[in-house]
Amino acid sequence: MKRDVERVRELLTAVGDPAGPVERAGAELPPRAEHTLRALRETRRPRRLPLGRRRLLVGAAVAGVGAAALAVGGRDLLPGGEAPTPVAYTPPVLSLRPVDEGSARSAGEFLLAFARRVARLEPEVARGAYQYAKTWGWWLNTAGDVPGGVASAAVPTVTESWVGKDGSGRRRSSYGDPLHPDSAQRKDAEEAGLIAGTGVEDEIFGPGEFPTPEGTDWGTVAPFSTDSRELARQLRKVNWEGGMIVLGVHDLLTYAARSGPADPRLRAAALEVLADSAGVTVATTTTWNGRSAVAVSQTETLDGSTQRETALFDPETGYPIGTESALFGHPRSLDIPVPATLAVTETLTRARVTTTGGRP
């Protein structure tokens, strides 16, 4: 989605208490940014969001608690598992360990060193006709105009994709049972159209038909440059996710790798773009499935509510492996404990296969 490249709000670092007092930016914002700020002050009408889309509105799509134990039984819905098992509805907020905490090394220096390591990697050999990926995630769809006030629904989802060089392929999405933080508003949530999907959806796509994430148009600027300055210009043309460059970089690399290996030089250039970006913090973390990751974050704050957007990268390869949206501070109009997770995605498997039914 094309976004105004000016910041909507002041981007804060995550060092210290993310919910601490901040100063509001005093510069006049462009019309699109003003519209976003107005939206932050109210709950929004329901939106149906596919896996990978982000909600950038502080407190507008929050209905779960990071430590909640709500779960649902389902097949293929526990990360990495195939047997029917419970699925956590609200994974805990990631614990981030800043790389520059107690040292003289800045986040930018860490990312530049990371980029240099990635640039030295050998290009991958594309054996197999299709790029296979398996991704787990959940997100919350919310309506603020139902009889009981605010209704929300979350649907744990596992998506498998097989994409060929010609843009053909297959996508299979398995949906868990809808989860309603407020069981009394189950009917309201259903009537508001908040259920993202049910059962299993299995779609086949012809050449050039495999869909990109809704609202993005990466194909208009591809092929992507391996020069970080030019790559930054390409990013600005397509997707800054409301000013969140960490999400733009994540999505660009995900798109670049959807039908085959992404050039190590491109992955390195993307990391250099992040290293040169203001308001970015870098940490190490462990994902919900126990994988080590480099976490690159930006935050936005309004009236005591801080929303942290994080993109996760494989520390060995520089490939994107997931995202998290988390809320700290004041919960705004929603009566929820914080910190809380808003949405998560995680890539479970990435490999080359020979057919649209093959798995590694």
What does this structure look like?
The chain crosses the membrane at residues 56-74. By secondary structure, this protein is α+β, with helices and mostly antiparallel strands. The chain contains six helices and 14 strands. The strands form two sheets. Strands 1, 4, 5, 6, 7, 8, 9, 10, 11, 12, 13 and 14 form a twelve-stranded antiparallel β-sheet that branches. The chain has a two-stranded antiparallel sheet with strand order 2-3. The longest helix is centred in the first third of the chain and has 13 residues, at 107-119. It is globular.
Largest sheet: 12 strands, antiparallel
* Series of secondary-structure elements, N-terminal to C-terminal: EHEEEHEEEEHEHHHEEEEE
Share of β-strand residues: 25-35%
Span of the ends, CA to CA: 33 Å
* Overall average pLDDT: 75
The secondary structure category is alpha+beta
Report helical residue fraction.
10-25%
Could you tell me the radius of gyration in angstroms?
A: 20 Å
- Give the low-pLDDT segments: 1-89
List the SSEs and their pairings.
Layout: E1 11-12, H1 31-40, E2 71-74, E3 85-88, E4 97-98, H2 107-119, E5 130-146, E6 149-154, E7 157-164, E8 169-175, H3 186-191, E9 200-205, H4 228-238, H5 245-256, H6 264-275, E10 281-286, E11 292-302, E12 305-313, E13 320-329, E14 340-353
Antiparallel strand pairs: 1-11, 2-3, 4-10, 5-6, 5-7, 5-14, 7-8, 8-9, 10-11, 11-12, 12-13, 13-14
Transmembrane segments: 56-74
Biased composition (Basic and acidic residues): 179-188
Keywords: Membrane, Transmembrane, Transmembrane helix
